[in-house]
Backbone:
């Protein structure tokens, strides 16, 4: 870093340049074809991407030397109330510690007002008091450290307040050059993607022609007496189907290339704007030249007065601790309690998290397996804990088989199964209502009445899964791709489809058999949950849905609507199917049911047998 170009304003300027280059690089490095893998076509070769990193990263803002002194037209002495925000940051630290103490004391008051057995209450009060005393010690430590830091604050103030404009101009030139070079690199890539789009569309047009005209052979047609009638073209359906697939793939790739070119073009516009913005920001430094002869000594005196006043206030707080919080009469006992006590208030915080209506999964990720075990047993019971352990073990085996191994005793996977247990318990509660009983189903003696009941059941389950889908069920006509139901994903959430054949009172299934189709609603909503979790991880954040990363990757690779590979359910068998056809149909059924999305969704079909299980 050139001499004298340092301080918070400098860092803000360099951060603006660095952020602009980082955003440009992120877009420039994007692979538009990453989700367009196809069994008939490989993605095009990406252009060679060059990117520019800033010559002067933000962290170098205070690494250069400085030149003290005033009176030079090329030196800036920038006052602008700089000591005040520094003092505010120091004060914010002490306020945070004080707020932590306030929360601990509130927990203590809540504990004293709760109804516990006397021995338990006594021990918990002792533990909370230990945490409060420990927190006060934590407060003393930064107090002493801050006082020592403030003693030299006013003397060192000049280090942060002087820039040399000649050297600063060199930095500005370097920064502008970095951004302009990045613009040149991205313009090359934009042209490459545009040319790629033209070539892909040409290939798509050629494949489209093949899909319409591919012929296997030309056959001569004769009458019964052998006389010539004409010629018949026999279409090559395999070649046509493959060409049609390639046509779609080429057009998808062309669209992706055009979208990437547009994204790069927009990023170039933003980068040019950042060049102007950073230059305007730099001009703030030059605008202070007129004040370069300000009273630097007076600034230091003001900062020193502020530091002395703050130091005195902190000292008075530190000294007051010895008056209100006497030392423990039994240091050994206090040390033992603190050593064997979880600083999180005896896991009271964890118990509150697990007992909340809307659980904060992000906070729960910070706890260990053993901490979660103790409190899950306390809140949900030992039976639930044992079932969760079994479900985690089963999930580990499935994920390993699918090629997504997870570390043993993964807290993410444990929390995922706990969330699934909570969802299933809510489904049990809803399913036990009288208007969703078998008796209510039998009383609904028309197709329309049963469709309305299924719609009401889905409306009740949507908030449980936390998904957003089209409000009405689509009751589709049966075809060779629809069994009991299905879910189709869209940008607006998706749609649940139910085959009315299996719920019609006038149809073949009995009332008891058709009543089981209520479970199909939970199954399809679970597919909506899977899609929402995948999209949320990529667009919003991975913590919106409590799903482990291994499970998310398995779902993503199995979701055709999101670029993965999915095995559709087999069509219904004809009544007169042969034994070989039945064997092949069963094999297809097993492939379908044992893929990641379906293993998970079938775990929500039957509320009496929840969890992942393999179909044999």
Residues:
């Amino acid at each position: 870093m050139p001499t004298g170009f340092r301080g918070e304003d400098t860092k803000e300027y360099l951060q603006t340049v660095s952020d602009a280059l980082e955003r440009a690089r992120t877009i420039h490095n994007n692979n538009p074809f990453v989700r367009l893998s196809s069994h008939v076509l490989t993605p095009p070769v990406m252009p060679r991407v060059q990117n520019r990193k800033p010559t002067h990263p933000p962290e170098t803002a205070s690494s250069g030397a400085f030149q003290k002194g005033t009176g030079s037209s090329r030196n800036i002495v920038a006052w602008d109330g700089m000591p005040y925000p520094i003092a505010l940051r120091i004060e914010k630290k002490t306020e945070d510690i004080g707020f932590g103490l306030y929360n601990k004391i509130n927990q203590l008051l809540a504990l004293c007002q709760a109804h516990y057995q006397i021995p338990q209450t006594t021990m918990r009060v002792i533990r909370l008091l230990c945490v409060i005393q420990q927190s006060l010690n934590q407060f003393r430590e930064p107090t002493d450290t801050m006082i020592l830091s403030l003693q030299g604050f006013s003397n060192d103030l000049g280090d942060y307040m002087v820039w040399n404009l000649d050297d600063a101009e060199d930095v500005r030139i370097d920064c502008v050059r970095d951004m302009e070079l990045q613009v040149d690199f991205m313009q090359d890539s934009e042209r490459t993607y545009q040319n790629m789009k033209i070539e892909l569309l040409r290939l798509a047009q050629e494949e489209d022609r093949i899909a319409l005209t591919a012929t296997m052979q030309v056959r001569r047609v004769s009458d019964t007496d052998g006389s010539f009638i004409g010629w018949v073209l026999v279409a090559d359906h395999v070649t046509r189907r493959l060409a049609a697939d390639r046509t779609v793939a080429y057009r998808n790739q062309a669209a992706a290339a055009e979208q990437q070119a547009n994204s790069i073009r927009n990023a170039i516009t933003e980068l040019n704007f950042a060049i102007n913005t950073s230059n305007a920001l730099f001009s703030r430094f030059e605008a202070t030249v007129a004040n370069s002869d300000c009273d630097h000594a007076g600034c230091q005196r003001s900062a020193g007065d502020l530091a002395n006043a703050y130091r005195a206030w902190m000292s008075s707080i530190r000294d007051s601790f010895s008056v209100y919080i006497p030392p423990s009469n039994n240091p050994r006992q206090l040390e033992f309690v603190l050593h064997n006590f979880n600083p999180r208030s005896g896991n009271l915080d964890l118990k509150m998290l697990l007992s909340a209506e809307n659980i904060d999964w992000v906070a729960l990720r910070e706890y260990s397996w053993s901490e979660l075990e103790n409190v899950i047993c306390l809140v949900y019971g030992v039976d639930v804990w044992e079932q969760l352990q079994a479900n985690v073990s089963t999930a580990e085996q499935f994920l390993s088989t699918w090629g997504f191994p997870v570390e043993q005793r993964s807290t993410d996977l444990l929390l995922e199964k706990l969330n699934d247990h909570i969802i299933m318990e809510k489904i049990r509660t809803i399913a036990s209502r009288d208007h969703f009983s078998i008796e209510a189903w039998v009383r609904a003696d028309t197709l329309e009445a049963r469709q309305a009941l299924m719609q009401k059941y889905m409306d009740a389950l949507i908030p449980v899964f936390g998904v957003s889908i089209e409000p009405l069920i689509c009751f589709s006509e049966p075809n060779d791709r629809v069994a009991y139901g299905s879910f189709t994903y869209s940008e607006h959430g998706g749609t649940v489809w139910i085959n009315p054949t299996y719920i019609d009172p006038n149809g073949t299934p009995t009332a008891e058999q058709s009543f089981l189709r209520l479970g199909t609603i939970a199954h399809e909503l679970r597919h909506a949950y899977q899609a929402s979790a995948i999209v949320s991880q990529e667009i919003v954040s991975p913590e919106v849905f409590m799903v482990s990363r291994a499970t998310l990757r398995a779902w993503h690779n199995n979701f055709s609507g999101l670029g993965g590979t999915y095995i559709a359910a087999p069509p219904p068998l004809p009544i007169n199917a042969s034994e070989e056809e039945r064997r092949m149909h069963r094999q297809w059924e097993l492939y379908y049911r044992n893929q990641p999305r379906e293993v998970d969704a079938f775990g929500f079909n039957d509320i009496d047998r929840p969890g992942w299980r393999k179909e044999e």
Remarks:
- Strands lie at 75-77, 162-164, 215-222, 228-235, 474-475, 485-488, 495-498.
- The two ends are 67 Å apart (CA to CA).
